[in-house]
Amino acid sequence: MGGKLAVISENVSERKSKRRVFDRLSREWFAAAAVAFVFALLVSFLMIRWLESAITFHPAKSAAGDSPTLPASAQDVWFTTSDGVRLHGWKFTPSTKPTASTVIYFHGNGGNITNVGWVGKLLASRGLGVLIFDYRGYGFSEGLLRNEDELYRDADAAYDFVTGNGASNIVLYGQSLGTAAVADLASRRPCSAIILESGLSSASDMAATVLPWFPRSLHFVLRNRFDSVHKLSKVQCPVLITHGDPDPIIPTEQGRLLFASANEPKKLLIFPGAGHNVF
């Protein structure tokens, strides 16, 4: 009898020992799985953020020795943002006096002002003062554009430069990404009119177009919002919205969303076959 009890006791002890080993291994496995899961989430988050930045900004930086030819009636200008970044631009003076209005032109997410100097030249020929400038990291401008807040700082600096030099009747003209800067600036600063060419309605709407596999329920992880639809509802000046149809970069429907959110007076011009560049 005593021998049987000893065997039973030994078996119970062995089972308890195995159970402790199993529990320890289970805890270790769970901890390892949790670490791996958190690591995977972090990597995915960083990849999405990197992809977002790579898709959003395509600066063309000018080398220090470059000396692009100034368009007719233009002069080099420099001004500084609130966080100390020097931006470069071209200021166009019309041949007619007095200047009817001054246009601040905000280009898209690629290239630099050398690609759009003709816009300033053409507008100046119509009797308009014009400022075309490069965001930080574009052309000769210093720094690096990493998010929408920095884009808005650059827009503020351009506005302050123009108004600080006595310009009035300010018209804000944005193309593609530049429309996000215009919508934000016009929602906070007085201006006479705004023009949105080939504009995006929001970063989320663009993500749904460019990254259709990325669920909208996860768009909150995006760094930028570019919520122009919401901001346009705060703009109290005439609004002109133009869009090509079809637009291979920003769907025409986003232009219609912008128009729907804008206050009167407003006008929408859709140009069949114009693509992404309407002007």
State the main characteristics.
alpha/beta; 279 residues; 10 strands; elongated; 8-stranded mixed beta sheet; Rossmann fold
At the first level of CATH, the class of the largest domain is: Alpha Beta
Global Rg: 28 Å
Give the proportion of residues in helices: 40-55%
List SSEs in N-to-C order: HEEEEEHEHEHEHHEHE
Q: What does the overall shape look like?
A: elongated
Low-confidence stretches at least 5 residues in length (pLDDT < 50)?
A: none
The spatial strand order of the largest sheet comes to 2-3-6-4-7-8-9-10
Briefly note the CATH topology name of the largest domain: Rossmann fold
CATH superfamily of the largest domain: Alpha/Beta hydrolase fold, catalytic domain
How large a portion of the residues is in β-strands, by DSSP E?
15-25%
Tally of distinct domains: 2
